[in-house]
Amino acid sequence: MQTALKCALAAGWLIASTHALAQAAPEASPASAPATEATPPDATAAGTEGGNPAPQAATAAEGSHGFALAARVSTLGLGIEAITNLHKRVNLRLQGNFFNYDKSIKEDEIDYDGKLKLQTFGALLDIHPFAGGLRLSAGAYNNGNQIDLAANCRTECEVGDVTVSSGSPSDNPRLFGGAKFKSLAPYLGLGYGNSMRGFPLHFAFDVGVLFQGSTKINLDAAGTARVTDNETGETTTRNLATDSDFQMQLAKEERSAEDSAKEFKYFPVISLTLGYRFGQF
Q1: Per residue in 101-125, pLDDT tens?
Q2: CB 133 within 8 A of CB 194
Q3: Are 168 and 214 in contact (CB under 8 A)?
Q4: I need a surface site. Which of 79, 83, 127, 193 has the fewest CB within 10 A?
């Protein structure tokens, strides 16, 4: 009876030892079993925990970095951006956007030939709260956006409290100037897309707001013109560039135009992006 009990205890110890060794080295071949059996059970347990990879290997995988380049189309123009990950839930994007186009602009009853020049350079942090595609973006842009304005007043332009028009064929009254915005503009946005996850070729979509501040408008005038006071009806011929009274009316026109352009204080940004991830390093 004692012999049978000893045999049973020995068999149980052998089964338990074999199970522990199988967890510690699941890929070991049968031929290496004798050498493995000589390894103390506590030495094999030190490198594993419930059959999971060693913590050092997991840390190295999470600490790797990827790099991607992308082309984008947005309300800021055509652009390109570089992306890398700072954390499994945080990516960094650096981008530049450019575009020019001509557009007729009617501002405060004056028809301008406008040229919109878009130029921004931005740095954005994308936070992926669920480590997936959804992202919250925040950052800032070096804002070089501006609008060039030019108006020919041969027919008639209302500037402040006076009306400007040509008094003779030799007159060439004109207004010119531009609109500029705050040079450093914060950005907040929401989007979907993660350059560091999924297939190397990837898409992204974003909507956000560029806080570019109040519009600053500067206007100048040139040429000789017939200037009519809108209250008294008095008409005189003046040099628009040098007449002090008209320059006061021009300053009033600037303030009026700035009030009309308050809508540009919050510039909507909608973008589509196509990019490619080149791997991890």
Answers
A1: 998 887 767 888 999 999 999 999 9
A2: yes
A3: no
A4: 127
